[in-house]
Design brief:
Layout: E1 7-11, E2 14-19, H1 22-42, H2 51-63, H3 65-72, H4 79-94, H5 101-106
Antiparallel strand pairs: 1-2
Helix pairs in contact: 1-2
Pfam families: YebG
Organism: Serratia ficaria
Protein name: DNA damage-inducible protein YebG
């Protein structure tokens, strides 16, 4: 019988993700903390965002914090940030019946 050590990130009693290393689990937990803080900060925005939108946007920003930091410093966004928008525009032109994941979620 083999013994495996797993690190589980738990938030509000709910298991979020399981990792094989403590370092990965800690990094994910830290990202979730940042997403929560960004979600709280987004409540102050002059926009009407429901809880799900605010949570999703906070998670997206936290997940892409390195690209966001680069943009906020006034540097051009990394190529990985630029390409998906172009690919998305081309996809929408190719098949207008398919919406993005966020459009499908909103429906």
């Amino acid at each position: 019988m083999a013994v495996e050590v797993k690190y589980v990130v738990v938030r509000n009693g709910e298991e979020k993700m399981t990792f094989a290393s403590k370092k990965e689990a800690d990094a994910y937990d830290k990202m979730l903390d940042l997403a929560d803080n960004l979600g709280d900060w987004l409540q102050q925005a002059p926009l009407s965002l429901d809880d799900e939108q605010r949570e999703g946007l906070g998670f997206f920003l936290a997940e892409n914090k390195d690209a966001l930091a680069q943009i906020l410093r006034g540097a051009a966004p990394p190529e990985s940030v630029k390409k998906p928008a172009k690919a998305k525009a081309e996809k929408n032109l190719a098949d207008p019946k398919e919406g993005s994941a966020s459009e499908k979620q909103a429906a």
